[in-house]
Specification:
The chain is mostly beta strands. It is built from 2 helices and 19 strands. It has one domain. It is 4% helix and 54% strand. The model has no long low-confidence stretch (mean pLDDT 90).
Length: 271
Amino acid sequence: MRRDGSSRFAPANKFGYFPAASVGWKISSEEFWNVSPSAVTSLKLRGSYGKLGNQEIADYQFQGTINSGIVYTYNGVQSTGGLQTLVASPDVKWEEKEITNVGFDAVLLDGRLDFSAEYYNSKSTDILVGITIPASVGFSNLNPVVNAASLRNSGVEFSIAYHKRKGAFTWDVSANISTVKNKVLALGGNNEPLVGVGARTRIGGEVGEHYGFVYEGIFQTQAEIDQHAKQFGAVLAPGDVKYRDISGPDGKPDGFVDEAFDRVSLGSGIP
């Protein structure tokens, strides 16, 4: 059990508790195990659970700051005043990640072959993110840090290694493979998708999934351009890229290809 404290959080949220535990059972050491060592030399089952904390934010986010060196003009008179430059986040606390692993390790063929398999599941909650607030609020930092988002990563990992010794010569070869399934559970605020250049993060999807227009080929003739939906208001010519008109304000193709209605998910951004 860990008890970590951070001065980046208000006194009421300064400390976080992060337990961890693991168990293992070397089943091949049990009396009932009667498998030949030349087939299965060793077999171990294992599992673990742990919780980690993250405090990677700027200092004093739980306090508001005021800049007293602001110069402004009122009724033709220049004066010096103050401006609150940081929105206080007094309730910000530790981001937490829970990780569960189960798997086994096997040694086969009198130690010549090692094989491991593992399933993992991690869930991050109270993720520290900056949320957007209206500029009309009057603060210079429009992305105060709060505990908002949560996501889950799960998958399997496999590794295998072969060892060979012949006289004074020894060689080893190994390989591994892993999978990951990423799912966004919450984004904070009103849970609106986060859309960037060529990427989107939304609830139920992956972090940073590819997001854009559907490629349909290259315009070959002016007649083909004339028959196609208009793209971004641009003047097109043969040789330009052609994109699909997917939708419009009423949910049907509207003769225009634009960012508001015609971008779609194009696949995972995770290798």
